[in-house]
């Protein structure tokens, strides 16, 4: 979503230093949420494939890919290096693997922990960014 990145970058550059820091923090938090949701949808996809739920797998894959692009763009906006973005996703993988315990029967635990927020983020990432910008 180039529009999200351009809007966030324009906003950051047009503000005084303290306000820029606050806005950068908002974009950073959204980038973290995007990373978590990329991992969430990746696990949902894997478990859906295991259960032969083709439609669920397709939607989850689409969401993961879209959010991956947004996460990368948000990271670039705040000048986050690629290694930091990858490290953030690795932490999310480790946390979510603990909930899954190696068994897709535990996908319910992931859904409870991340499902609603990731759906909201997937449906409208700009609205989530706006929530943080208003704080």
Task: Note down, in words, how this protein is organized.
- It is a single chain.
- With 135 residues, this protein is mainly α.
- Helices cover 85% and strands 0% of the residues.
- It is elongated and about 45 Å long.
- The two termini are 23 Å apart.
- The mean pLDDT is 88.
Nearest-integer average pLDDT: 88
Strand content: under 5%
Low-confidence stretches: none
DSSP E strands, number: 0
Termini separation comes to: 23 Å
Characterize the largest beta sheet: strand count, sense, and whether it forms a barrel.
none
Could you list some keywords that capture this structure?
6 helices; 135 residues; elongated; mainly alpha
Describe how the helices and strands are arranged.
Layout: H1 2-13, H2 17-50, H3 54-77, H4 82-100, H5 107-123, H6 125-133
Helix pairs in contact: 1-2, 1-3, 2-3, 2-4, 2-5, 2-6, 5-6
Task: Sum this structure up briefly.
It is built from six helices and no strands. By secondary structure, it is an all-alpha fold.
């Amino acid at each position: 979503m180039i529009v999200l990145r351009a809007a966030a970058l324009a906003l950051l550059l047009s503000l005084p230093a303290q306000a820029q820091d606050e806005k950068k923090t908002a974009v950073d938090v959204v980038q973290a949420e995007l990373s978590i949701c990329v991992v969430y949808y990746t696990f949902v996809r894997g478990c859906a494939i295991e259960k032969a739920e083709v439609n669920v797998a397709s939607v989850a894959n689409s969401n993961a890919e879209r959010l991956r692009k947004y996460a990368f763009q948000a990271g670039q906006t705040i000048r986050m290096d690629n290694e930091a973005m990858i490290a953030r996703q690795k932490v999310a993988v480790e946390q979510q693997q603990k909930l899954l315990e190696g068994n897709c029967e535990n996908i319910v635990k992931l859904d409870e922990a991340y499902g609603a927020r990731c759906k909201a983020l997937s449906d409208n990432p700009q609205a989530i960014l706006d929530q943080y910008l208003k704080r």
